[in-house]
Amino acid sequence: MAQAASKTCEICVSAPGSHYCIDCEEYYCENCKLLHNRQKLSRNHAFQKATDLIPEGKSKCSKHKEELTLLCNTCNVPVCTSCVAGKHNKHDFSKIVDAIAQLREENETKIRAKTNDANQNLKKIEDSLKSFDNSVESVIKAINDEGNMIKRMVDKSVAEMIVLVKEQSKKEKEKLTIMLSDARSVLAAGQTLDRKRKALDKTRHDGGMVQKINTMTEEINKLKINSLLEFPNISFNRKSVAEDDIRRMIGTYTIR
Ligand SMILES: [Zn+2]
Ligand SMILES: [Zn+2]
Ligand SMILES: [Zn+2]
Ligand SMILES: [Zn+2]
Q1: Can you list the domains of the chain with their CATH numbers?
Q2: In this predicted model, what pLDDT tens digit does every residue of 55-72 receive, in sequence order?
Q3: How far apart are CA 96 and CA 71, in angstroms?
Q4: Cα 42 to middle of ligand 2, angstroms
């Protein structure tokens, strides 16, 4: 067992015991420590600097002045071997080194569990970040695709509407053209009659002339001025499409 007062190597009992083997609970000098760590059985023993050790006095039973090597599990206090027969009679005990080993193991297990959980969370977050990025990309693509489709539909509708306007206005224009040529021929006939009238004025005013004037009157009466048909007209009624209407047309998305 460790002897705080001496702190001399417990192996060679000459050099200062500046190292404490936690597993053997013994002080070692520099040389003996090296040898200890080379031996197969104690290769993995952990050393602590003697100066870092808690002063021995504090781990001694205040009643029996013996080392507190046991832990009373019933009272959850460290006790010495003499305490076992006294106040803590028939209580449940374990060696302090075992209790420490168990506590260390428990802590190690707890830390491992927590780091595992943290790791899993990290992975879940990274995964969801990646899949969220992918979802955002596909939503953007869908909006783009839908928009392009609407643009193509708009282009097609505009082209079709223009073709329709041209076709229908052509028919109306044809009616106007017929009216125009009718009016032209009436005008030409009128001008011809006027020339005939002037020529007739220059001939002799006799009985034959009366006959000719009557014939001319008949021709004048025959000349029909057609009443005008309704003129065609075309105008555009704007639907006043707002940007909101376009957005509604494209679709909606939900983000949580
Ligand atoms: Zn030594
Ligand atoms: Zn050892
Ligand atoms: Zn005691
Ligand atoms: Zn007890």
Answers
A1: 1-57 (4.10.640), 125-235 (no CATH)
A2: 544 578 888 888 889 999
A3: 5
A4: 5
